[in-house]
Amino acid sequence: MVIYLMAGGPSDLHPDLGMYKEREGCIWVGVDRGVQILLDHDIVPAAAFGDFDSVTEDELSLIQEKLDTITIYPSEKDETDLEIAFKWAVAQDPQEIWLFGSTGGRIDHFLGNIQLFLREEILPLHKKISFYMADHKNLLTVRTPGSYSLQVMDDKKYISLLPVMGNAEGISLDGFKYPLQNSYLPMGSTLCISNELISEIGNYSFTSGILLVIRSSD
């Protein structure tokens, strides 16, 4: 099972949702204004979460008419709408969780959304759940120590590895324009920004730390 969460970020940053609509075994979930965004793309989400303070009364009426499952929360609460929806998605035990509409706009929301992937109770789940954040130019995921492969993506040729929550060690890159062998990557380093693949498949591994892996277009 794959769960797609659509938040209410700027529409000009959304990826092409048509790439994901036809995938089998996927569940769409709207988060606040993200529900209306999905309806505008002829996608009726299976569930919706939010305080819905970013939609008009007419839009909320339409949302309530179209959806069987909608949970409305108060505006003043201890969690963002997306955090509530994210926790629900994790509890469904899917293979993948994707966040759309979660970049751009307010930088505090964007950074908070990234940190959803980095919660202490979430990090162990990265071994069985793949978490992704996507917009029209970027695809972001989080990796825990191990070995991984990447295939060439014509529309996202740049690959960046950023250490978070501490330094990363034992990083090796094979099949990359700028290879590494058992290297050390401290917090704040830009060593692994804007690398590229030179083969159809590149391999990377590391022994400790947590990495943000970001694939970007020009």
From TrEMBL:
Class of enzymatic activity (EC top level): transferase
This protein's UniProt keywords: ATP-binding, Kinase, Nucleotide-binding, Transferase
GO molecular function: ATP binding; kinase activity; thiamine binding; thiamine diphosphokinase activity
Pfam name, any one: TPK_catalytic
Transmembrane segments: none
Entry EC no(s): 2.7.6.2
Keyword Transferase found: yes
Keyword Cytoplasm: no
PANTHER family: THIAMINE PYROPHOSPHOKINASE
Protein name as catalogued: Thiamine diphosphokinase
